[in-house]
Design goal:
With 232 residues, this protein is an alpha+beta fold. 38% of the residues lie in helices and 27% in strands. It has a single domain, classed as minor pseudopilin epsh fold (3-Layer(bab) Sandwich), CATH 3.55.40.
Length: 232
């Protein structure tokens, strides 16, 4: 009888332990499942690499476009500064600004542009040659000759260059020149245009100053013989 009771007790205990173990297993299995589901929403390694790649491409495009935009802004500002320098010469030529030791008021004023050193010089045409009625100067500003008087200058920004200087006669194509002179003499606002090795008697009707940025973009300052100045 005692042996039967012991066997029955052990069977009951074993069943209870098994039931309790199954209960705990199911309970913690559900808990682990919930815990696992909470950690699922995340980036995989492939997704992270794709996002970083897209970010790198967008950043490189923005940086490149910013540099190009900045170059265009500097190029445009430089072209307008050149136009303003020519306009300043025109104003001096038509106004009563004096020049020289005698403070003479009958000289012309102009701009001398040299392609080789990317320079622009505002000067007074004071070389003493008489052309016409009491009009001193030869209608050509040339600082290299040492005869005309330098008033102001403009230098191109670093890595920006004068890509070309051109003059044009009526009915002809543009001619490339290495230097250019544009002079204004009272009382007319007309421009006297002549390039290196050219003669005023050819009656050039247009001058073109082409400036370029490091990226190759270009702007053109156009001066006509009627005194009009524009930027293209």
């Amino acid at each position: 009888m005692q042996t039967f009771l012991k066997i029955s007790f052990y069977k009951t205990l074993r069943r209870r332990v098994a039931e309790h173990s199954n209960f705990l297993a199911k309970k913690y299995a559900c808990f682990g499942k919930r815990l696992f589901l909470k950690t699922v929403p995340a980036f995989t390694l492939v997704e992270l690499m794709v996002v970083l790649g897209i970010f790198a491409v967008i950043t490189s495009v923005v940086v490149y476009r910013y540099r190009d935009f900045n170059n265009n802004i500097i190029l445009t500002n430089t072209a307008y500064e050149i136009g303003l320098l020519v306009r300043q010469a025109q104003v001096y030529g038509l106004s009563v600004r004096g020049s020289g030791a005698s403070d003479a008021f009958n000289q012309g004023y102009g701009v001398f542009i040299n392609k080789s050193d990317n320079s622009f010089v505002l000067c007074a045409d004071t070389d003493g040659t008489i052309l016409g009625s009491e009009k001193n100067g030869d209608r050509i500003c040339n600082i290299n000759s040492g005869a005309d008087t330098k008033i102001d200058s403009l230098q191109m920004p670093a890595q920006y260059t004068i890509a070309g200087l051109q003059t044009k006669k009526s009915g002809f194509d543009e001619e490339d020149v290495e230097n250019l002179s544009i002079v204004f003499v009272r009382p007319n606002p007309n421009a006297y245009i002549v390039g290196g090795g050219q003669n005023l008697s050819a009656n050039y009707i247009e001058a073109r100053i082409i400036v370029a940025s490091p990226s190759g973009n270009q702007k053109t300052v156009v001066i006509t013989h009627t005194g009009q100045i524009s930027v293209e």
